[in-house]
Amino acid sequence: MTGPVLPLGGVRYAFHTFGCQMNENDTERLAGYLEAAGAVPAGSIESADLVVINTCSVRAKSEEKLFSLLGRLRSLKKKHPFLVGVAGCVAQVRKDRLPEPKSGVDFVIGFDQYHRIAEIAAESRHRKMIETSRRRIFREDPVPPVRESPWSGYVTIMEGCDNFCAYCIVPFTRGRERFRPLSAILEEVRGLAAKGFREIQLLGQNVNNYRDPKTGTDFAALLSLVAAVPGPEWVRFLTSHPKNVPPALAEAMARTPKICRQLHLPLQSGSTAVLERMKRGYTRERYLETVRTLRSLMPELRLSADIIVGYPGETEVEFEETLSALSEIRYAGIFSFCYSPRPLTAAAGLVDDIPPEVKRRRLAAVQALQKDIQTAFHQTLLGKVEKVLAVGRSKKDPAVFAGRNEGNQVVNFQGPEDCLGRFVDVEITSVGPYSLRGRMLTR
């Protein structure tokens, strides 16, 4: 007697993921559902029977990259037929445009339908499928994700966002805040610990807002409970909103060695006037005060941030305030972008009045300043020993291993084959603006 016929039995799948860690985690979840339905990983997009593009729409450039990739896939489909699906943020906001006949897209799937990807992909063999409906509660995945790393595991604690910053499309793509039950979070963390994972990364659009739906347990308490699970040596989280960094969170980080002394705290602009137009909910001075409080508790804390230049109405004086904020805060790293209007957002109704060449000049100035700041900071690490989780090989030199330190900075080093997945001590011997290099010390 044979078992049930799986809808995608033997189908070879491949993903291309744009965007942040939350998108990477979503790809792992989608792969879990595909494999539960009988699909198997393909060696490459070119050899796949099913290609799923997990998309980001936070910036216009991300959408441009999607449509460029779709053009390439259309050419490949002329050589051999395969299915193309689009998931993620663009699927939510461009669902009517994506399945056009010339797009080559066979199905569009939104966040809240990921559990149905096998069914939707199978049906798209016969007709175009668009499934992007919403829900207001957190849905637990009945199948485990296919994790990219066997050592560092993502754990979602919430979905969606209620902040509605003027420029941000996320509340319209991922929906309103939905919190995952504390018991389910801890169960997943314990499962990862049992499998030998060394690092846990808690994910959410604004983790500081987390509240357990049943008990009201807040994020600071959750963080302490996760850190108390035996096994993993590092716990990270993102993203935090600067308007809500409660003292309890800072204190939990400071007193718990397993919680990494690293925090992503998006600034966006150093100008209070621009922050007000962005509807960020904090001022420049309040942000700086938060940084001072955090560093008074954790002097070794390494901060990172997002920066947007060229927001509508941004004057040269306001832009200079961003540069001065970077000089004062001295981030360990930043992600910086030119403003681009996003559909559905409040800022989409504003006149995008900063010329492209001015945006590019301002972005170049931000990046040049930050490069100097990072180079100077990295030079202070020369000769010091950094604890590093070895996670792979260097892209430039396969003989060199790559890892990340507690500050989430890339560290390249030479070591034995068995160092992968281990914490190692690396003495920093040379630095660049974007990575560190050293030699592994034997314990």
In words, what does this structure look like?
There is one protein chain. The chain is of the alpha/beta class and 443 residues long. The protein folds into three domains: 12-131, 3-Layer(aba) Sandwich (Rossmann fold), CATH 3.40.50; 152-379, pyruvate-formate lyase- activating enzyme; 385-441, Nucleic acid-binding proteins (OB fold (Dihydrolipoamide Acetyltransferase, E2P), Beta Barrel), CATH 2.40.50. 32% of the residues lie in helices and 22% in strands. The chain is built from twelve helices and 19 strands. It has helices at residues 21-36, 60-77, 89-93, 117-123, 170-173, 182-194, 219-227, 247-255, 272-278, 284-297, 316-329, 356-379; strands at 12-17, 40-41, 50-55, 83-88, 107-109, 129-131, 152-156, 158-159, 178-179, 199-203, 234-238, 262-264, 302-309, 333-338, 385-393, 401-405, 410-414, 423-431, 436-441. Strands 2-1-3-4-5-6 form a six-stranded parallel sheet, sandwiched between helices. Strands 15-16-17-19-18 form a five-stranded mixed β-barrel. Helix 2 (60-77) links the parallel strand 3 and strand 4. Helix 7 packs parallel to helix 8. The longest helix is centred in the last third of the chain and has 24 residues, at 356-379. The protein is globular. The chain starts with 11 loop residues before the first strand and ends with a strand. The mean pLDDT is 93.
**What is the CATH first-level class name of the largest domain?**
Alpha Beta
Considering the protein shown, what is the CATH homologous superfamily of the largest domain? Answer: tm_1862 like domain
Integer average pLDDT: 93
Give the N-to-C terminal Cα separation. Answer: 56 Å
